[in-house]
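Reagents: none. Just compute today. DUF885 domain-containing protein.
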Amino acid sequence: MKVRSTLAVLWLLASACATSSSSLSSSSLSSSSRPPSAEDARFTALLEEDWERNLREYPTMATYVGDLRYNDRLTDESFEAIARRKQELQALSGRLKTVDRSRLSAAHQLNYDLFLRNVASGLEGQRFPEEYLPISQLGGVHDQMAELAQIAPKRTVKDIQDFVKRLRAVPLMVDQSIALMRKGLEAGVTPPRVTLRDVAGLIRNQIVESPEQSPVYRALFEGFPPSLKEEEPRLRAEVATALREAVVPSYRKLLAFFEADYYPRARESIAMSALPDGAAWYAYRVKEMTTTDLSPEAIHQLGQAEVKRILTEMEKVKEEAGFKGSVQQFAQFLLKEPRFAFRSREELLMTYRDLTKRLDPALPKLFRTLPRLTYGVLPVPAYSEKTVPAGYYMPGSLEAGRAGYFFVNTYDLPSRSKWMVDALVLHETVPGHHFQVSLAQEQGEVPSFRRHGFYGAFVEGWGLYAESLGYELGVYQDPYAKFGRLASEMLRAIRLVVDTGLHSQGWTREQALAFFRENSGEPEHDIVVEVDRYIVNPGQALCYKVGELKIQELRAWAARELGPRFDVRTFHDVVLRSGALPLPVLERHVKAWGAQAQTAP
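Predicted 3D structure written out:
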């Protein structure tokens, strides 16, 4: 999943995932014949009221989840609006305490516990000024409109005119972002300067001489519906005028501020612990991202152990391939071997698209329930391809009539190899992110905040677990594909070591790069992108391995406890059909199912 920019709204709003897991009762995970109560209705009304408020407050989030009522607005990021939202969260916490949990049905007790956890986490996070960081090399104010243009509806004249209103609001959005960045400079809260070196170029990618050259314009009119053919010239003119008069001048203003004031004064340090209250901020993010109480030191040691284990597995695959030399030499051989090279960007795209379609008919072997929403594969937009990873997933929406999309990076073609394809497709599409996110959205019996929730350790942990299913799906056909799968897993193990090393153990950027080079076969460009990603988005990289290990542990437990009664398709249903969950809640959920399955006829 894309981990920064507009999608972060869903992450931070819908599922701030911290606070003690002990507050979640196992009784709320079991079935109950108790009929809905008056307290259920009161609590449901509170949930619906809060969801509606969030859609109004965060109109870009509303667009992503498929609610089109606020498509003519952008989020108000003024100091006044930010302060008001913090006060409203305090008030919501007070109202939530008036709900009598003991009078709720079992299903609503789980909803209550998760909602309470999210609210408590949001309150805890208010001490940390995340709003001072609206821009980074991974995304932000400079590319938000181009990203929105990719997913904005384009079926009616009103759809386009709504987007024009958003374009007209860009000057205010930029001014508010600059004000937040100035406040961040005063407080000493900025991204590390080393990670900002390419951001001026990213802003320039949005500053065009002709509106028709804008990434916004191209995305908005790509695949324009024939039904609007008569209106198309007028709508194109309106978009072009808004870009020329409002958007491009605002980005020029942003670029001038960034180059003259922001970049020169950005902090030299790289660790989050170097920020004001930074050690507590990092501890909060670790707890939020992993949904556990694991300390940074414990995660660091876990990562070291996983790196050693995966290296042993890589040695076996290297021997299977008949290669004489070290694992690192084998990785370099694979990167340089012509038979694994793509001859063009088009061949790369077609290779990824072919595998996604070959995967679809194999899924029923492992899953009883399949999502209805379709997905496609697109290249990472040129305006951001230099600074983002090898691929990411953008969720779709049945409500909005929008498919999910896997964006694959075609930049620096020599660094992309065919043996990397299988694991990345499994992670980002099916049975990975597209499968899990779409299935969660389609659980109509659970509240909206859960259908669109994003607990990082669950979502990214599932994506990494999905890569391991490639063996059962018949994807990894030779030792090179198997090595690609292990290289992908190694990347996630290295993240545990490097992220905690950088932000809690005093590692330098050079140490992080050196550890990466020593233990992975990643291309140099990808290593630099990865390390700078961990520097600028602390804690997020911990989600993958922590979550995957828990899911693997629960599957092994269920298979051991149930013996011949174990059915992997049912296990996957149990894991996925409740939507994303914090890991302690997932564990109780699976074990409650296991206990019932042991005694069932």
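Residues 221 and 323 are 50 Å apart (CA to CA).
Action item: order primers for follow-up constructs.
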